[in-house]
Amino acid sequence: MRLPCPICGDRDRREFYYQGHATMLNRPSADAGTATWDDYLHNRENPAGETRDLWHHEAGCGAWIVVTRNTVTHEVSGAVLAEKAKT
Amino acid sequence: MGYSGFKVIKEGLFGQKGWKPVWRNPDPKPEYDVIVIGGGGHGLSTAYYLAKEHGITNVAVLEKGYLGGGNVGRNTTIVRANYMLPGNSEFYSHSLKLWEGMEQDLNYNTMMSQRGVMMLCHSDGQRDYFARRGNSMVNQGDDAELLTPEQVRAEAPMIDFDNVRFPIYGGLMHRRGGTARHDAVAWGYARGADQCGVDLIQNCEVTGIDIEGGVVRGVQTSRGAIRAKKVAIVVAGRSSQVAAMAGMRLPIESHVLQAFVSEGLKPILPSVISFGMGHFYISQSDKGGLVFGGDLDFYASYAARGNLPMKEHVMEAAMTLMPSIGKARVLRSWGGIMDMSPDGSPIIDKTETEGLFLNCGWCYGGFKAVPGSGYSYAHLIAKGEHHAPAARFRLDRFRTGVGLMDEEGTGAQHNLH
After folding, report:
1. Of A76, B15, B137, B374, whose CB is crowded by the most CB atoms within 10 A?
2. What ipTM was reported for this prediction?
3. Is the pTM of this model over 0.80?
């Protein structure tokens, strides 16, 4: 599997660290309450199909990117820098 | 139909014509006391123990494909009770005891082979950790033996003892652990449940869960609506999709785990052996094939196949541990869909919907749990209270932070297990 880093182009999967679903970008406020934080930290939609997940190009440019990917076919359809991703 | 050695000889003499189908293939009834969603190892054992231990026989197991066609039909078949933390420790201890009595209980040859599980250590720190883990296992009432390098050599002489980078410092031997025939476990429980009157309904996909006023009423399926007083979800990698039918979001992310089988070889491995420097474990099937696996690919996936980097890692670990197997050819590999929980431990609990139960989060260790999971889940479904050995498998432990069971000590976070 190769991931299209917006800075470096197509790179081998081994250069990237997988963080999890891009919902990690929607960090609640500190006083949002236990239920909201539990949902943010633990609960996942876990889709069988298209998903958006957060990867770190740790052995490359160091960018955090949001990859649009299909969990059933492993098809990768795009990636944007996390700082520019609409969450 | 009971099985025995006499029966095998008799059928051999008369052309094998007396064997009958092992279970019925019924159409779904309009209503059941309990519906178990998922005809894998855990679902079938749940149905069996509901009938046998609690006398609840008006039960249906709904399976969207064929019985035992998921992870129980493809795994590395390892059975063990070598966990350390309270919660997991008593549960897997109970499960191993059920494994030991399974063949007599089911009158079915599941080829349970207590050939031992030997974990290797390669540093002083790792040996200290194994001593501690072994003590926890002994305290739980199970067996553990800390082996010296010489004792490891006597057990498994084909390991590379001259590896200067990863020297063998010893091993933790769990002699009651071993392997079992994975398909036979599913078939044995299926047959046992069927004989008790449970309806095993294949090619029946659940498409909705009917809930009225916070109480479960039944399910919608590809073969029509079926009413039920209680509904039990136990669908491993598909837990999130089925739970979503009841409006739930689970602390589960589905990942791919790969495993491999070589061509058949003469016996070279005495026990299950796990390498301590890199995620790798190997055993030899009774047919002679080397069965081995590694770690997750580490990204969410339902593809049931993995990528090349993890294959490479597994092969490298194999060659590091036992260069002698380098000429063996890999026959096949596969990927299973693992229901990964944040702390790497399972969930057997009630839900907010009355009558709806949840069993998931077995991560990559569900096979050894098949009897214990079914036994404890059946107890919860029948009595409405948690079975003592599985009482800590609570869904709310992630919210409260109380009772997390993080064996690896890395934190209760999705990408760490």
Report:
1. B374
2. 0.96
3. yes
